[in-house]
Amino acid sequence: MTDIEGTVAPGYERVAEAFAATMAREAGASVAVFRHGVQVVDLWGGTAGAGRPWRRDTLQVVFSATKAVPATVALVLAERGVLDLDAPVATYWPEFARHGKDGIPVRWLLTHQAAVPALPRMPLADIYAWHPVIARLEDAVPEWEPGTAIGYHALTFGWLIGEVVRRADGRTPGVFFREEIAAPLHLDLHVGLPESELDRVADLITPPGERAALAAMDPAALQTRTLVISEEPLDLSVPAALTCEIPAVNGVCTAGGLAGLYAALIGARILAPQTLATATTVAAAGPDVIMGVPSRSGLGFGLPSPDLPWYSPSAFGWPGHGGAIGYADPQTGVAFGYVPNRLHADYAEPDTRAANLIRAVNASIR
Description:
With 366 residues, this protein is α+β, with helices and mostly antiparallel strands. The chain has helices at 13-23, 68-79, 89-92, 106-110, 124-129, 131-139, 156-169, 173-185, 210-215, 222-227, 239-243, 255-266, 273-279, 353-365; strands at residues 4-8, 28-35, 38-49, 52-53, 60-61, 189-190, 252-253, 284-287, 294-297, 316-319, 325-329, 334-340.
């Protein structure tokens, strides 16, 4: 039986029961919930790797749940008047204007409408180095007429927003986030992990057929060119990939750090309430031309569809590949983070781990 540690506030015992059920089939994970700014669930258990139990401060890569970081940074700069979301990207980043990209406003980077989701495959060293990726984005040709469709910018989202942030502020999004948000709020959430923290990162358990599935994809298809941009497999568990900034996918955090970010957002500790309300209102909606599913986007945050367990008219957040998720619901005051190290393996069946926890949270507050 997997050892589970941590605490739940009275009334949230259902979440502890759901977590115990999840951990019966899990390797290692943690879950955290805040309600109106107070932490009511803080649970962890399992193994972080060979001979390493999962601890309260164990970190894990959360893939696309990372996107909350560059989104938040851009919104802070917009609120301060440093960024104008309606200004062309080229106002801050002149080289981006090449090949018909001169009219793309900053807000389309946040809503996945910029039409620059794909890159030619490049060495991993270039991906880790930032500037080679930025040069390729400058030379990129839009895949469709910008602003006319939504297409999930799975990897380029972070670099596109990140370079605008860097040009406007002088700091990369990971550095800005650490200095201006994470450190003051004591959030254990990192984009560009310090080398001193590497020993806290749990091993990543990847489904055995994942690389083969990616290799079998049509290399000319837009979805493939969006998801596969490196000449070698991009392994986000290695030190070089953890300590650089890939701001769409290489965030590393505890569940408490992820949930804590969302608690601070809905608690008006990062953004003014009106700024957040605007950012979490539907800014773009329609079929995603890359992923082939319906999409709803705020300004930098994903908005759930009614079929998802974290749906409410006011919820916003980001799920991550393999099972991680962070979100908040201002209507209920809930902020939630779930961080597993075993990526969901069976794509034919839904991943119910976070869903069961979310249902338990919702049942606890009714």
